[in-house]
């Protein structure tokens, strides 16, 4: 597409049926990318693919468990063989975990759940796509983290360690892959104000906290302490994150790697 950010790019999105992964997939497709959606729930992947097709874009879906390293490797290899390579990859897979429990009451299992889950998925997917990227055709790996990577806040120990681990992973991987013409950029959004549809990761994650405060998840995110604790007094939107991801994946951001894009609405100031 003339003037588009991602013309003729092949983009793989793990967790492409989720609210955030789906939003990013739609923008990638709008900007000219051929999108490959992978995830565990076929119906959600198909819904995103239908939206993309209705808007004139191209999307393919595959039911893939990101914790199955062999399945992820085979899926990435099949895409590369058919499409000629992988240009962009994003891991938007979510892992449900505890938030709100302090160390004295936190089990080792609950502490490790997000640490192991998020980093395992990130390692498996990054390793699978990296072998099909780079060289004459530049590659981009995008990662997602959270402000918890830097916040000193009680009750989010496992969450914070996993978020910091994802950011460290992105920085070190950027150094490793730079000689191969592959960029790695982390995106650090806050909780997303317009994501908590029924059954979504955001809704499930914050439902208990919102209920304890006598609020809906939507009200808590729009008017609660998280929004009021940002400089902008609001949380980021799906559209803002997706549009930023498309820019970072494009050649216009070609000098960026090893960086963390702060989309926390000023919850953190770097």
> What average pLDDT do the residues reach?
92
Shape, principal axes of CA atoms:
globular
The major β-sheet equals: 7 strands, parallel
Order of helices and strands: EHEHEHEHEHEHHHHE
User: Strand pairing plus helix content: what structural class?
Assistant: alpha/beta
InterPro entries: NAD(P)-bd_dom_sf, SDR_fam
Family: Belongs to the short-chain dehydrogenases/reductases (SDR) family.
Protein name: Short-chain dehydrogenase
Keywords: Oxidoreductase
Walk me through the structure:
It is a single chain. The chain has 270 residues and is of the alpha/beta class. It has a single domain, classed as Rossmann fold. It is 44% helix and 15% strand. It has helices at 19-30, 42-54, 69-83, 108-130, 157-177, 201-212, 217-223, 225-228, 238-249; strands at residues 10-14, 34-39, 58-63, 88-91, 139-144, 182-189, 259-263. The chain has a 7-stranded parallel beta sheet with strand order 3-2-1-4-5-6-7, with helices on both faces. It is globular. The two termini are 35 Å apart. It comes from Amycolatopsis deserti. InterPro entries: NAD(P)-bd_dom_sf, SDR_fam.
